[in-house]
Every structure is written in structure tokens, then in C-alpha cells.
Amino acid sequence: MLESFASYKYDEYQQFAPGRRFLESLALWLQQFETKGERDIAYAFVKERLIFVSNAEINSLVGLAFPTFVRPKLIADTAEGHSALEAHRVKSIVKSKEYRTRLRKTLFLGLSDGARTDQFRRAHPQDITHEQVFHAYDMSSPKAKGFTEKLQKDLSTIAGAEVPEDQAKFEYVVLLDDFTASGTSYLREGKNGDWDGKIAKIIRELDSDELLGSLVAQSGVSVLVVIYIAADQAIEHIEKRLDQLPFSKGSIEFKVVHRLNSGVKLVPPTDDGILSLADQDRYFDPDADDEHSKVGGTSKRFGYAGCKLPVVLAHNTPNNSIFLLWAEDVHRVRGLFPRVSRHRKFE
Known about the structure:
The protein is of the alpha/beta class. The chain has two domains: 2-49 and 266-326, no CATH class; 55-262, no CATH class. 39% of the residues lie in helices and 14% in strands. It has helices at residues 2-8, 22-31, 36-48, 55-81, 90-95, 97-104, 117-122, 141-159, 198-207, 212-215, 232-242, 272-278, 293-296, 323-326, and strands at 51-53, 106-110, 133-134, 172-180, 188-189, 195-196, 221-231, 250-260, 311-313. Strand 2, helix 7 and strand 3 (133-134) form a beta-alpha-beta unit. Helix 4 (55-81) packs across helix 6 and helix 6 runs antiparallel to helix 8 (141-159). The radius of gyration is 23 Å and the shape is elongated. Pfam families: PRTase-CE.
């Protein structure tokens, strides 16, 4: 069975060492456990609880983001703003100048490399242009100026008349990312009573009149945060705080393409075996707990922020999964799907 899964999915994991595939990694991973009983527990965990999200599955979710959340919102707002357009006449709305204007005034930004903005754009070539998608939210002044100039040109083409530069502003901002399990890296309370995290940082930039803020209108801006995969813990964390985040130029919504329900999390007594292994000091490296662990509020032994997930993404294992799954090559414990961290410790 595992041989079939290896060829079907697991071998595509991108962070295996050169020449290594899943079965070799599995053999080495199991070898580190001291008793046959422990190896049996670990092997059963892989067979029964491991969740591996392939590239094809991620790309499918990327393709669903626009038609599931963005297009319906643009259609609804267009119908609401123009009495001549009836909400149920979707084809008429999509063909209208009003809808095309709203669509062109939509800016898509990636929150990380996992956002796959290139794949997102290619999935909707008839709807989205290259000049309204950017792989990151940190934008240089020349890049921002180029986006504005192209927007003005395209809006003038749609309107059939010259659109003034001060009216060439984005009114929708869609923030894309692949995965969140805790939500703390996106939005959390800061030390001084302010807000921290990716979403908070972007909202502050949008609220300003420079760089990213210069691209959007002064009012009526809709920010849509779309995550391809999110766990219940993250959804609850973000939704609880999002309404408290100030944004003077408009509103913020949070959407998830695929929700990992509470049954995914490793919990006793069902998962006592693997949790017992993860809890043993000999199967954990204290070096994994760096300054970033403090943000999550607990050790990464059971995953960042204590998420206790059995999840692997094809391009990298999230650190919200248990440490035994993702232990990096620099750690003294071997991970089944070794993670490559964005944060490297220099000695």
C-alpha cells in the first residue's frame, strides 16, 4: 500500500535530499525509534493518520479561489451598485462595463511563496491580467507606479474615454496564501497593544498614502483574505480578531477554500501512541524552539502553537505538524518529511 502511495503522492515531496524518495526516508525515520513497539506505532501513524496534500490538490484549490469567492463578490457588488442590473442575470452582469471595471480594479497579492500567484493568474487568463497580480505585498515605488499607469490605461479602454489618474485606483485587494493552522502569523495582538502579523502589516500599508496605499482608493476598499487550506484553530483565531483590526479605507473579509476540520488534529485517546512518542525528549531537539516559537506560545514538539497536525504539503511540511514529521536536517532527530525553514540559525 505504501509503495502505491509513494509513487502516487509522497515521492513528489520537494524537500527530500537529492536521490532520496519516500520509502528510503521512511526506513531511516523508523530506524531511529528504539523498540519494535515504537516503530509499530510510528508506522501505523503513517498508514492511518498522515495527510499529504499534493501539488495537484493545491493547484485545484488555487483554481477554485477566484470563482468561489472573488467573482461572486464582484457580481453581487455590481448588481447592488446598478439598479439596471438584476442580481440573478449573471451573464449580463459579467459582460457589463460596470463589472469589468470592478474586476480590473481588483489587485491580487501573495502573502508568501505558497500563494502560487503565477498558477492563480494562469488559471483565469480571461479574467485576470499580469498587471494586477503581484507575488508579494512589499512593493517598490517603480512597481507601484507601473501598476497605476497600466490600470489607468485599461480603465480608459473599458470606459471608452480617458480616465483621470486620480480615479485609477484599486477598490478590491485580494490577499492569497496556501496554508494556516494557528493564524498567529497572520494576525495577533502585539506587545504594546497594537496589532501584528501579515494581515495587520498590509492593512497599515493600505491605510497609508504611500507605495501599496497609493494604489488603492481613499474609501470603499474591500480587502479579501483568501487561504487555500486552513485549520479550525486558525479560522477561529483570525475571525475573532479581524473585526477589531482598524481599516479606515474600507472593510476586511476572511475566506477559506478548504477547511481542515477538528478531526484532523491529533488528540487523545485516539492518537495516544504517536503523541506519546512526540512527547519523549529523545525524539525532540530543543534547538527547534527558537524565538519564533514564543509567538506560538508553546514548544514546537507538538507543532507550532500546539496545533498537533499530521499534515504535509508537497512543497514543504508546515511546522504546525508534530516535530517528528518535519524535523530539519540540522536537528538531531530525523523527520519523515524534513522541513526547510524560512528562518535559519547562524552560529
